Give the backbone structure.
Amino acid sequence: MRLDGRLLAAILAVCAACSAGGAKRASDTTASLSNDTAKSKAGVTTPAAPAAPATSSRRHMIVFAGTSLTAGLGLNPDSAYPMLIQRKIDSAGLPFEVTNAGVSGETSSGLLDRLDWLLRGKFDVLVIETGANDMLRGIPVATLKANLDTIVHRVKLARPDARIALVQMEALPNLGPQYAGGIHELYTNVARREHVTLLPFLLNDVAGKRELNQGDGVHPNDAGEKIVAGNVWRALRPVLDSVR
């Protein structure tokens, strides 16, 4: 996949902003990067709360685990794309309830560290959005691959009946075309090999467009977040239809 200059610049900015703190949390399961960074240096991981049990009217649970892009940094919690997905679910009359477990500044290693905590909760679908902060730090493709493989394997072991969806991420060629190409192929290969659903790049049709982003030029505003939700929904809806 070829990315134009504005999209490439926006992806790099997203990576940087995912590790900037002091912004409003998207839900009570998220933390600002300033806290995350301090805790990381102290060897402390900030976990997201496990998903709450489904109510009688919502038989299935979906957990969105990711970075500030999932947490909805800078937005009202109800405007983060996972909650917009909830509205689409409700409009479609589907029996699912969403939990937003995004954490600003998180790397794939951080997600791996809190995976046991997430697995304590009930879910039927897990959406994984991770890797942007790994790329910012120049973490080797092999390390990200190993983390993703471990995450998927552990989820499958603990929740063999759960569906897993992986969000495609992209890297700038600032660390070289081999790195950028390796990142792109990594997600495709993991999804194919592990038989999980690959969701599109989160910021398709949003990145690089000033009118669709907040003042930082990085995180989607309310209008942009609706497009993000549409990107996810089109690929996620068949997954939900497969859950019985």
About this structure: The CA atoms of residues 66 and 111 lie 8 Å apart. The chain has ten helices and five strands.
